[in-house]
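User: Assemble these into one structure.

Assistant: Restating your components, then the assembled model:
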Amino acid sequence: MTATLNPTDRTRGTGRSAPLAGVLDGARKVAQALATPLVPSDYLDLIDPLRSGADLRGRIVAVTPETADSATITIQPGRGWAGHVPGQYIRIGIDIDGVRHWRAYSLTHRADTADGLITITPKAIPDGKVSNHLVRSTKPGTLVMLDQATGDFTLPATLPDKVLFITAGSGVTPVIGMLRSSLDDLDDVVQIHCAPSERDAMFRDELLAHSVAGRIRLHENHDDVAGVLDLADLDDLVPDWREREAWVCGPTGLLDAAEAHWEAAGLADRLHVERFRPSVVEPGEGGVVTFDRSAVTVDADGGTPILDAGEDAGVLMPSGCRMGICFGCVVPLREGAVRDLRTGEITSTDENSGTVPIQTCVSAAAGACAIDL
Amino acid sequence: MTLAPERPTTAATRTGVNSRLSVTSAEPRPQRPELKKSGRPNPAAHLTPEQIEEIGRELDAIRAEVMDSRGAKDAAYIRKVIKTQRYLEMGSRAALLFSGVKVKGVRPFWWIGTAGLSVSKILENMEIGHNVMHGQWDWMRDPKIHSTAWEWDNASPSSQWKHSHNEIHHTFTNVLGRDNDLGYGILRVDEDQKWTLFYLFQPIWHVANALMFEYSIAAYDLELGGYLAKRKRLSDKEKAEFRKNAQEVVEKIKRQATKDYVVHPAMAAATFTGSARHTLTANLVANLVRNVWTNTVIICGHFPPGIETFEKTSIEGETRGEWYLRQMLGSGNIAGSKAMHVMTGNLSHQIEHHLFPDMPSNRYAEIAPKIRDLMERHDLKYVTGSLAKQVGGVYWKVVELSLPNKVEGKRRRDVILKAAKKAIKGKGGQGRRY
Ligand SMILES: Cc1cc2nc3c(=O)[nH]c(=O)nc-3n(C[C@H](O)[C@H](O)[C@H](O)COP(=O)(O)OP(=O)(O)OC[C@H]3O[C@@H](n4cnc5c(N)ncnc54)[C@H](O)[C@@H]3O)c2cc1C
Ligand code: FES
């Protein structure tokens, strides 16, 4: 449907010998002429949404419960899937009640398996839109949107001699991915694994098995009996922690504490953290609106449409009916929250959603926001 | 839906925040006069400003109820329509590859392919294109089904269409001089429109317009008529803007025509069944069918008898409630089966569509009884009827209003003869350029 060409449609055929490239280019032009005003992929996607060259998608093939509120989702990625480095995450876009939501999840499968399947392991959080849906309501067969793997919470090419993992709750996911892929090559691994209770500990059996086999030294911390992990105890639990390259993943409190702890020891460069919690936008009344590309900033109150605020500040705003019916004013909200002046409904961005299109004529700032204009 | 050539500058019309955002008004709103300027009765004269505000609130509530309950079922609906249309198109085009093959004196693949392609083009333009471009499906946040990214199988580029249709027509619906859908500048469909000699031949204009509808839409969206009339007075910047838009239209038409009349026939030629020529005629027929059908549906939306028009001054400082009122009185529905609603892109629910242009089209049917009830409770006429009745009404109007209005003591024949003489002498310049 897009008027613009999909980049993969456009670049196909380059890098081959000249005559072949010419033929492919000709074929592509014909396909384009046949499909206009759509693009060939709009038709091909109906037939094979996972084909190579398509936007990256995946089909959920299994949902396997882990604990009472977590599950491993196995996904067959499209043929464009480029693989990952253990510890990395993907963004997944899933339609819930008809609306597409994007979230990040660490990859938990072993890298380079023969079947080409990938897995993520979400843990349902209270009121969590996507995590609850994935854990409790997702059916095999569902098609999801994917992004290629990314992230630098990974083991280096030359593995360190001594490793420390501290994981809490669902923060174990990137680490389980590393262990599944690289444990054979890691000589000395200590892991502190925290969970609210024994029942809630994700991948507990797998970690215990490694521990029993002597492949890792595991310390379990169940908050209901031991209280929340205090890093002051680290000297007792892992006396040689200063010699270890450390990877820590868990709730914000633990990560902040770890950063302070390693910083204080002058070892900040030995610590790697992964934050799951996207910085959240708390909606307010009015706020500073930044028009990125116009380099204009205005202070708008909670009753003024962003369209008016922008125009008054001299920004060239697209507009039309100015009453919410024509969609001529839609622009991307890059960051922040806005309130629909008709319904009071809040629309906000987070790190995973990317930009969100908004109608500026009926949207007022609900806190600081940045518009891509 | 429609076409309108006027592009008001936003700055000139704006004083503070748009009054149409709210059903309430800071300044008290005036009571509507008994008669319109033209002397005809004002259909909303019996409503007090408070009642109109209340109607606004009631409509806001109906809107909220539907918008809050949009969900997986609605998303599945539009995806299914899109999928059906694309498979239908592919199937029909595949059939046309053999459209030259004759079996017992008929060409079955031509008939099947042409019928399928016609239906596919109609679905693509109406239930899909028109509605997606209205932003009815933007809430799904699927970039592939989004108003900002959609392009349709029609001569008019989506960006220009969205401006003239979504913005001008939907904001200024049936306002004389603001919404040129009132006859698209070539038809006189309301007695309050001034008669000129040009309209004497409007039955011909009307048929020609219907046959070439996609091109007339493109010309309107481009404001070709206005450009030709005002060319000498336009600034260089305006001229450059026009040329850029015109270029865009020409490119779009080229691509569309190449696809339908060159590439697909060429593909058919490759089957060596003598199908190239027949594929070409099939595409031509499908485009004509689509043009005539969309035109038919659209004229039923605003021209049938009983639908109101409004004066420019009547919309100053208009509240959301008053805007709603104008939408209800300025639109008309077509009664019919479910299939018929889909084939009209649910513009058979023109009243509901004009009240809530961004509501998913599959939901209009469920609110229609509520809207009808609301209008009847307030003594407002809910215009609806079968397709035959509504179309018949419009065609009759086109014929009737091709003649000047009847005025006491003046013979219509004399008015026409006088205008004709004037035109022949070359003084007139009455005819509207299109
Ligand atoms: C790089 C990265 C990797 C991630 N990997 C995983 C993973 O492997 N497994 C996994 O379960 N999650 C992971 N997450 C978190 C995940 O992306 C979602 O944030 C989480 O599932 C909650 O989404 P939701 O839609 O259910 O909650 P929402 O509906 O978005 O939020 C509901 C409420 O919970 C709060 N909230 C949002 N996110 C979190 C959070 N992470 N922790 C606590 N409170 C939160 C919100 O402020 C809100 O009040 C990862 C995040 C990142 C950035
Ligand atoms: S200007 Fe028309 S929807 Fe915003």
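Chain B has one domain: 48-387.
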